Structures are given as structure tokens and as C-alpha cells.
Amino acid sequence: MKSHGVWVYTTRIVYKKLLVVALVVGIGGFAVLQTRTDKTAEPRQTNSALSTKPAPKQSVQVVLPGAKPIPALEENYVQPASLWVVVSKVHPLTDAQYVPSNLAVPAVKTRTDKSTAEQSLRADIEPDAVALFKAAQAAGHDVMLASGYRSYEQQQVYFTNYSRLYGEEAANKFSARPGQSEHQTGLAFDVSLTSRACYLEVCFGETEAGKWFAAHSYEYGFILRYPADKIDITQYQYEPWHFRYVGRDLARALHESNLTLDEAYPYLQTALAELKNRGEVK
Fold first, then answer.
1. Helix axes 248-257, 261-278, angle to 10 degrees
2. Is the dihedral of CA 188, 193, 194, 199 positive or negative?
3. Is there a contact between 214 and 239 (Cβ–Cβ < 8 Å)?
4. What is the pLDDT of residues 215-255, one digit of tens each?
5. Any long-range contacts for 60-64 (C-beta under 8 Å, 24+ apart)?
6. CB crowding 168-197: b at 16 or more within 10 Å, else e
7. What global pTM score does this model have?
8. What pLDDT, on the 0 to 100 scale, is given for residue 33?
9. Is there a smaller number of Cβ atoms within 10 Å at the N or the C end of the chain?
């Protein structure tokens, strides 16, 4: 009995030792596992690391006097394909033979006795052109697109004919020489009453349709290109029928500032210079 008691006592001691060892090994294993898990976890970002992120780059702005600033288009405004290209006697097209690559007849009334080309505008401005004509129609004005794109050669024909009738100097007051016409960009059009009353005449500006276009065209990205009070600046007579697309932002800014595209030219060039300095435009 004594020896049996010793054996039981000894066995209990051994069992307790084994239990302690197992607990120690288990705790050690968990600690190792936890250490490995912590090592593979993503390091936390400190506030100092977050503060080193570069601030988002500010866009170049065009600021016309009296108008809200607008973001500059990231393109070269000297190129004929630019929405902001200025075409005039002072700034002729840099490529005399330029032809837009995306001409299309817009879904508006057009003068169908003109060629398909002259009924066309650039396809990318068609949505705003259609919206403009639909709004005019909704306001009760029966109008049509009388003349859109004109090639260098077509403009040469027009200017030559006017020169024969009125003399070259007089013709150049209301007709552009080839290479100096906005029509060649596909961004400009002449509008007319479908009846052709006051067709391409100053009296169109006194019609209700002419007044409506002068007041609302900017809302759709178009500007009255040759206003009556800016003849000395544009170097063309008042043409209440001639509208030019520049996009809704710039059209609104020109409306707010009461500047012509010619007067906005220096401000556009300032923005272009900044874009070139940043390497955003070549």
C-alpha cells in the first residue's frame, strides 16, 4: 500500500510537470505566431507620411475682365483644329489648306441648295448646334443654317466675286480673304430666316430671330462674332447672322466680359504659355 501510494504521488507530480510544459510550449507557440503575424501586417501610415503627399495640381485658368475664371482647354489655340483658334485678318489660319476631319451635316434645317460641305459643321459641335436651333424653334423662330464650312477654294470664289462687284477693299469689309475665314474651321455658320427675309443683311439683327440669337447663343457655346460696336476691333462690318462656336465656358465668359474673341486673344495666349511651361501642351 505504501509503495502504491508513492507511485500515485509520483505519477501526479509527473502529470503536473507535463501539464506545465504543455502550457509553456502552447503560450510560446502563440507568441511566435503573433510575432510573425505582426511582422507581415501592413505598417501604419503616420501623419508625417500623409503630409508628404503632393497637393493636386491646379488647372490653368483664363481670366477675362468682368467674367468668372474658366479652365483653359489643354490644346494649342494657334492650331486650326482648336475650339479657341482666333481666325482674322491679323491671325490667318496657320494651315491654308486645313480641312476638319469630322465634318457632318447637323440635324437642323439647312439651305439645301448649298453643297453638302457648306451645309456641314464639325461633328463634335453638332449637339450644341442642334440644341441652339431647337431652342430658337421653341421660341417661335423659323430659322435655318444658311452656310457652314467653306473650303479655302470656296472662300476664294466668294471673295473674288464680291471684289468684282464692289472692289477688293469694300469686299474685305464683309467677306474674308481665303485663309482668313472662320468658316474654314467648321466652327462657324451663318443663320437665316427660312423665308430668307433680310438674308445676310444687317436688318436680320432687327428681326425677332436675330435678337434672340444675339441674346441666347452664348448659352449653347456660340458667340456673335462681329458685333455692331466692335467694328474697329474685328475689322469687319456688323454681321448679326454670323455665329462662332467656342464652347460654353468661353462663350459665357465673353458674354460676361463683353469682349470679342479678338480682344480675348491675349488672355488665351497667356493661358497657352502657362500650359506650354507646364509641358501640358506642345
1. 130
2. negative
3. no
4. 999 999 999 999 999 999 999 999 999 999 999 999 999 99
5. 60/271, 60/274, 60/275, 60/278, 60/280, 61/271, 62/250, 62/253, 62/264, 62/267, 62/268, 62/270, 62/271, 63/267, 64/253, 64/254, 64/256, 64/257, 64/259, 64/264, 64/267
6. eeebbebbbbbbbbbbbbbbbbbbbbeeee
7. 0.80
8. 36
9. N
Which amino acid, 181? S
> Which residue type does 50 have?
L
- Identity of the residue numbered 2: K
Query: Which residues does the annotation mark as catalytic?
Result: 239
pLDDT-flagged residues of the chain (< 50): 1-42, 48-49
Spatial separation of the C-alpha atoms in residues 128 and 149, rounded to whole Å:
16
Instruction: Note whether 192 and 146 are within 8 A (CB).
Output: yes
